[in-house]
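Narrative of accomplishments. A recurring question from our advisory board has been how the design workflow behaves on a single, concrete structure rather than in aggregate. To address it, we present the structure tokens for one chain from the evaluation set, followed by the sequence designed for it. No filtering or post-editing was applied between the two.
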């Protein structure tokens, strides 16, 4: 987290307003304000007063018989008649009929008969002063008790609930409903700098200029240079875009405000735009600062693509963001940093120069970057002496920063589960298997299912072992993991950023290897190959219709439909090619898959003894590593100096 700068006023800039301090509540407001405390005290006082005025609570409660005897004895001074309740005062406090009970000077009792003429005559004879009090409630009291008081209480209750009830971002429904929910990270929070961000050297270099502008804006302004108002961080999930934004603010030593794109949108029209205005106003008051909008695609998607036109709440919020970014003055050092996983769906007006000028791609790290990230996450994890993080980085090609953090955590959990004092290479292997293949299941396969699964996985493993264009086999198992009954795990030998058609055809043969092994051995297909067929079909369709790898179709890219973010990916427009072209695409896809199936079957037939040996070992051990597979079927095909197989298209 960034460490905001001091709140001292800067030259030529009005002093900053101190941030509100919390008194125990999450939103910085006291849990019980003074007005609510006074209201509570008033309600308690009124309740006590009404309880005290009740005739049934006057003095001591005595029995009617005891009261009658005291009247006969001439010990009653005066009484007041309240229907069936009678209150009064003794001339001399008598002794109670109940032992240990002391009576008070005043008393009350319940009359068995409301209008007892005998009692009245007795009190007249004994000189008791008595009076009657009306029992009917007045019109004013009735109105207050049944109309005014409930209405006031209901209004107060609704106002209190609306005031205190929080929407999904934590602001009140009335006073603070339209305020920006942007969270400010204070100087006491953990400070994040570029030293805490491993790898991403190019991205940090792009943002270093932003840091220098926030530190010394006069250096750029005296030459007429204009710093970009917005920086868009693009990249897959978990690559560290939010961390990079915090590090930028930490390096510059300026306040850092963070908000998620979905926090703008509410069910009430205009709330999102009001929050945008409040957010930018707050940022300008705290200039220089960094305003970070995470997942901006939630509010910044293409306008006009939805049903019903462009007058929904989301588009109004986007329009307000565009307007506010245009309103920045060159002297206002406010940098808007946004992050997204889907830059392709953002509105073009958001990406034009003058708004988000600078686009920084935050991609998955390479081997050197993965090793650096692992070192950062292993700072507090005790490692065994034989742990080599470079080897772990080599076996985690394609992992993002978040996935590497999860890998280290899973390895530490596994070591703790085993009772070890340090994390070993075996813990990293188990953690990688869990991340890539899923946790082990407790399913018990019968002998036929186990043998068929073993041949299926052995077919995959043998083809990957023998075909030089397929990645190296790391492990094959028939232990049910995740949603699969068995898994063949491949590990690339190097980072790969492009792929040719020869390797893709070999990949198709590898995908269909399990199905071909089942047909070769059992003379039938099973439903276990459904996922293989799905992935192989998708790959073949991309080769034919997107990448131009079919001589029959030619160098043309076809899409089934245009992708629009609010109508689904494939329902907005019909495909833009003829039925004949669609038939040819389907024919070519089938040809690619049939040729891959033939290649897989012929390879397995030529090495049937290795297939049987590998299957037998799988049934016995259930899981085989690279060294165990090598001991059974020999060395893998040479991948360093391999010559691509002839393309099936030739």
């Amino acid at each position: 987290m960034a460490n905001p700068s001091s709140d001292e006023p800067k030259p030529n800039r009005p002093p900053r307003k101190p941030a509100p301090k919390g008194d125990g509540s999450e939103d910085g407001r006291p849990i019980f304000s003074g007005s609510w405390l006074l209201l509570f005290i008033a309600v308690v006082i009124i309740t006590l007063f009404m309880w005290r005025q009740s005739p049934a609570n006057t003095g001591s409660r005595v029995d009617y018989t005891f009261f009658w005897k005291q009247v006969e004895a001439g010990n009653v001074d005066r009484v007041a008649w309240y229907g069936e309740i009678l209150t009064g005062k003794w001339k001399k406090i008598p002794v109670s009929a109940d032992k240990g009970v002391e009576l008070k000077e005043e008393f009350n009792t319940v009359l068995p008969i409301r209008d007892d003429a005998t009692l009245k005559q007795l009190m007249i004879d004994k000189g008791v002063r008595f009076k009657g009090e009306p029992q009917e409630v007045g019109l004013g009291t009735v109105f207050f008790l049944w109309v005014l008081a409930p209405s006031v209480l209901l209004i107060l209750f609704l106002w209190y609930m609306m005031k205190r009830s929080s929407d999904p971002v934590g602001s009140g429904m009335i006073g603070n409903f339209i305020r920006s929910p942007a969270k400010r990270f204070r100087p006491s929070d953990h400070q994040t700098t570029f030293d805490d961000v491993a790898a991403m050297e190019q991205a940090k270099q792009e943002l270093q200029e932003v840091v220098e502008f926030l530190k010394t804006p006069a250096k750029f302004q005296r030459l007429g240079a204009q710093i970009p108002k917005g920086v868009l961080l693009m990249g897959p999930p978990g690559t560290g875009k939010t961390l990079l934004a915090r590090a930028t603010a930490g390096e510059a030593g300026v306040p850092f405000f963070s908000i998620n794109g979905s926090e703008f949108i509410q069910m009430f029209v205009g709330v999102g735009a009001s929050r945008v205005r409040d957010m930018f106003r707050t940022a300008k008051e705290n200039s220089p600062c960094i305003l970070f909008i995470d997942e901006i695609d939630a509010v910044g998607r293409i306008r006009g693509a939805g049903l019903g036109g462009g007058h929904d709440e989301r588009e109004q919020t986007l329009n307000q963001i565009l307007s506010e970014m245009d309103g920045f003055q060159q002297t206002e050092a406010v940098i808007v940093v946004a992050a997204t996983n889907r830059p392709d769906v953002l509105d073009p007006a958001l990406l034009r120069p003058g708004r988000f000028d600078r686009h920084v791609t935050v991609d998955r790290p390479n081997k050197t970057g993965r090793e650096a990230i692992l070192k950062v996450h292993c700072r507090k994890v005790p490692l065994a002496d034989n742990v080599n993080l470079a080897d772990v980085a080599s076996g985690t090609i394609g992992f993002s920063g978040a996935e590497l953090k999860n890998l280290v955590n899973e390895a530490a959990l596994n070591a703790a589960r085993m009772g070890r004092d340090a994390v070993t290479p075996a813990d990293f292997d188990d953690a990688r298997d869990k991340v890539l293949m899923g946790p082990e299941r407790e399913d018990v396969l019968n002998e036929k299912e186990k043998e068929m699964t073993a041949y299926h996985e052995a077919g995959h493993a043998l083809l990957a072992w023998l075909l030089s264009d397929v990645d190296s086999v790391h492990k094959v198992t028939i232990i049910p993991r995740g949603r699969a009954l068995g898994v063949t795990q491949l590990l690339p030998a190097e980072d790969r950023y492009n792929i040719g058609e020869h390797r893709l055809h070999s990949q198709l043969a590898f995908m269909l290897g399990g199905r071909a092994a089942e047909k070769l051995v059992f003379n039938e297909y099973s439903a276990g190959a459904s996922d293989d067929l799905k992935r192989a079909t998708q790959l073949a369709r991309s080769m034919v219709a997107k990448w131009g790898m079919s001589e029959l179709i030619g160098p043309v890219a076809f899409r089934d439909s245009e992708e629009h973010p609010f109508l689904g990916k494939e329902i907005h427009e019909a495909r833009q090619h003829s039925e004949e072209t669609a038939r040819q695409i389907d024919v070519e896809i089938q040809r690619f898959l049939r040729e891959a199936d033939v290649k897989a079957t012929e390879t397995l037939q030529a090495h049937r003894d290795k297939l049987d040996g590998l299957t037998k070992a799988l049934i016995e051990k259930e899981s085989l590593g690279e060294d165990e597979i090598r001991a059974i079927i020999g060395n893998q095909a040479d991948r360093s100096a391999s010559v691509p197989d002839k393309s099936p298209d030739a």
